[in-house]
Amino acid sequence: MTLPRIVVLTGAGISAESGLQTFREPTGAGPALWAGHSVEDVATASGYRRNPGLAHDFYRARRAEVAAAEPNAAHHALGLLATEYGDKLLLVTQNVDDLHERGGVAGPQLIHMHGQLATAICTLCREPVTAGECGAGCPICFAGTLRPDVVFFGETPKEMPRINRALAAADLFIAIGTSGDVYPAAGFVDKAIASRARTIELNLHASDRFTQFRGGPATVTVPALVAELLS
Ligand code: BV8
Fold this sequence. Notes:
This protein has helices at 13-16, 39-42, 45-50, 52-68, 73-85, 99-102, 160-169, 188-194, 218-230, and strands at residues 6-10, 89-93, 110-112, 115-122, 128-130, 146-150, 172-176, 198-203, 212-215. By secondary structure, it is of the alpha/beta class. A hairpin with a 5-residue loop joins strand 4 (115-122) and strand 5. Helix 5 (73-85) runs parallel beside helix 9 and helix 7 packs parallel to helix 8 (188-194). The longest helix has 17 residues, at 52-68. The protein is globular and about 55 Å long.
């Protein structure tokens, strides 16, 4: 039996039950990430240039929260799915935390399309530096400085050609815990539908853009869906 090709897109909602705040709506983990911060100041290249220290503080605080968080049942269920599906599964995350890696998905099966907290990049040579201290001098070219390795608004998300190829070949597209507010990720469901894939949304609220919606917290809906796919 040939396995279907699956593309999974995750957003901040899959990490909410690990205690990490989402961007736009307060969850049990406290106020929304961007509450009290201007998105312009902490998530745009111009804001970063204007006040890099503010962005460094914002991302340093999130790195500390991620270090104290644990992957939840949804992350682990996707780890099981990734093990079973191998190269038939591509997990694209908008999240910059490392909970998917710690839940068992890594390497070529995982794309952090909006970057990751675990690395910093040099403003000049663009080389990634693992856990490099933002604001420090680049230890590779000794000419640039290190900035958060996250994709700001107005910057190009990572690995888009590979993501688009996977969406064109997908039999099943699953979006988990994302508001669908930010493009190009928010447009992936349309590409999947154009490729005649089945589309399933796992969220607390339905966006009505998918062929199927399953409501509830990710730690309930994701393990249930993975169990179905593995049976
Ligand atoms: C680009 C940085 C060109 C890292 C982020 C007009 C129309 C279309 C597009 C645009 C436009 N004007 C401007 C644009 C482009 C812009 C954009 O989309 N703007 C929006 C505001 C309109 N996009 C860009 O600039 C992107 N770049 O377009 O370049 C290009 C395009 C294609 C190809 C080449 C070049 C760059 C976008 C990246 C911005 N960086 N973050 C960081 O800080 O983490 S965005 C940030 O918000 C996240 O990274 C994430 O991607 C995004 C969305 O957040 P979500 O993950 O969805 O989280 P949110 O809080 O919104 O929602 C949580 C969800 O979880 C909710 O639905 C909730 O119900 C659910 N939930 C909560 N708890 C649970 C749960 N679900 C299940 N269980 C639970 N327990």
